[in-house]
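Sequence in, structure out.
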Amino acid sequence: MQAGTIRELFRKLSEQYPGMEPHIKRGVAVSINGKIYRDQWDTPLPEGAEIYLMLRVPGG
């Protein structure tokens, strides 16, 4: 799946896997090549990047 930004990745994942949308809306962090992004959804996704989605864990 090709996506130019984190936002586009979320949109494509929600379209292809509708069950993921509630989790994305609740909040996820995204790791791109080991760097974690929490709210910078316009961040470009480098080609060939290693990407992980992590559910946010409530608490402090």
